[in-house]
Structure formats: C-alpha cells, structure tokens
Amino acid sequence: MKKYLLSLALALAFSGFALAQSSDQNPRAQEAYEAYAQQTDSLHASTLGATIDKTYEAYDPILIKEQRREDRREFRRELRLERARNRNIFWSQPYGYPYWNPW
Amino acid sequence: MKTFIPFLLFALLLGFSCNRQVQRIETDTTVDLSGRWNDTDARLTAAELVTEIMGRPWLERHVSKTGEEPVVIVGMVENKSHEHIEAEVFTKELEKAFIQSGRVRLVQGGEKREQIRRERADQQSNASKSTMKQWGLEVGADYMLQGSINSIMDAYKKKKVIYYQIDMILTDMETNEVVWIGDKKIKKFVKN
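ok -> structure tokens follow
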C-alpha cells in the first residue's frame, strides 16, 4: 500500500514538473537558474534604477590652463605662508633671496 | 559726525558689492552657462525618449500577444561620458509617462524595492493578520529598461564641440530580445 502511494506521489510530482516546463524550454534551465540564484546579493539591487559612473577625463585646453593657474596661485600662497613662518630667522629680500638676520 | 561718514560710505559700498540677485524662472527656460550638460539637455532627452517609447510597435505587439499591459522595470544606466550626468532626471520622466498613459505598468526596483521588502518583513511580525501583506505576490517584469550615456569632446584653443548620445534599450526579460531602442543626440558648440 505504501509503495503504491509513493509511486503515485512521484508520478504526480513528475507530471506537474513536466506541465510547468514549456515544450521549447532548455532541459538544463534549472541548472542555469541555480547558477544565478547563488549570485543574488544586494549588489544587484543597487544597480537597478541607478546611474553608474564610468566617466573619463576629456582633454580641454581651457580647463588645463585654469588648473595650471590655480596650481601657481596655490604655490605662491604656500610660499608666502612659509616665508611668514620663518621670518624670525630669514628676512625675505626682493627676488626671493633670504639673508641671515642676527637681530 | 564727520568721523562717521567714511564708515557709512564703507558700509554702503560693502552692501552694494554683495547684492546677490536670485529670481525664479520657468523650468522650461533655456539657460546655458558653461556649456556642460544641464537641465535643458535632460528635458529634451526625456521628451524625445517618452515620445519614442510610447509610440513604437513593441507596446501593441505585447498587448496583442498577451492581452495585458506590459510590465517594465528600470535597470542600470551607464554614464560613460566625461561629465557627471544623473540619468534619473530623464528615467523618472519615462516612468511618469508609463504610469500616466495607463498602457504600461511599472514595478519598483533597486533600493526602494529593498525598503518595501523590509517593511513587508516587518509587517509579518507587527501588523494585524488581516492587514499584513503576503510574500511571493510581486508582479514580475516583462521588460527591463537599460541605458548608456556617451560623449565626445573636441576642443581647440577657445572653441569646443561636445556631442552627447543617450541610448535607452528595452529588453524582453524572458527571451533577451531587444524590443525597442531609443536615442537622443545633442551637439553643442561652445566658444569661450
């Protein structure tokens, strides 16, 4: 009796699976699903409806000039600060040549 | 009294030199300042893509095949340009067009979907039995909308030409078939 019931249950399960499977479906569809199901993580959710930045830096002569100007300004500012910090030892002269101040 | 006059003049000068002016303008007004990607570009892109996606045969084909409105999920938009461009500005317009037309259904994706699922999980232990929502009844999307943004810049001395191309693709989730491709091309000439 038990064997009969078991075989009936197996037959029903198999027929259900066969019905669920479309006639043209790849027989290894379950394998493919399992391979992807393991990869599911929060990373996938973060890419949906989002903009992923893969930007590049374009060559723009005007921006490069501006950057150089900004760099020079920054350098001069640093130089002034450095001179101000060390003015007890060195007294700055025109043309940027320091000399020793004994007082 | 005379000693206060220079101070008064200085205060007036300071006041006039810092008078920033802010005025409200219409959101469809074109204001080009730097030549970079701006709101007008986003608006033009959205308008073109909405017209394109709603007027193409993929929609009718889906309805005639299944008898139901297609369900769309918005996927990733890759920004491969040289500027920061937020695609959500125009993808939201597309989503709005889907909902307002009533011909395309939309399912939530990304972080928002995660939040909804977390709330549903919370309901399982905190909401009453009659009001808590069930698991496993979400609507599966038929199509995914993805896109990419590309740009090319050519500059010489004080002149530059910037070209943007925004491509959106709609793909069938089951068959991987691309059912619609829409694009918007924008070209700008900037003289400094």
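The mean pLDDT of chain B is 91.
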